[in-house]
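Risk register update: the risk of archive-format incompatibility is retired. Evidence:
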Amino acid sequence: MNSTVTSDTLARQACVRHRALFLHPLVEEDQPALPPAQQRVKAALTAKACALCDRCPIRQQCLYDAVIRYNVSGVVAGTTPAVRNGIRRRLGWRVEPDNFDALLGITNGQHVNHDDVIRARHTNPQESLQQLADRLGCSLSTVKRHLRQEREASPSRPQLHVLPPALEQVEQALLDVTTRSISSGLSQAA
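Archived output:
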């Protein structure tokens, strides 16, 4: 975050004022197999969060940080993780997920096997990520990290930048990704 951000600016941020919305499990967690009713609720909550982000005084900085610096979950700067991943692919940029457990010195005395996390997610798609973490005896961030690694695993990765892209490049990639997804949605509807 920019060091010139004042406490007044922070207080006006939608994600601060509407924490319950931005931290709602349907917005925060990636849940691939939801019943139709929950999918509609998730879509409505995500749209509301995105609309609130559009009016945020530091939206551009949040977008840049969420695309270039941190691999976060949930809605950030009016984007979803899928959109941010599309921007990164377009820019040839990769963000290594933070190992929050290691940063905090948490080991729980055991190592969680990556395949166990993936298997548990596929076997129990209706469970929240916190429930999976409890089941596996690890932290929520550990489950998120393993799922993120699985999503990002790809046999052929594009050439990655050495220097981070500029904010303008991130904004253009966002426009390209969202325009392309709108266009493909319209062509599928026709």
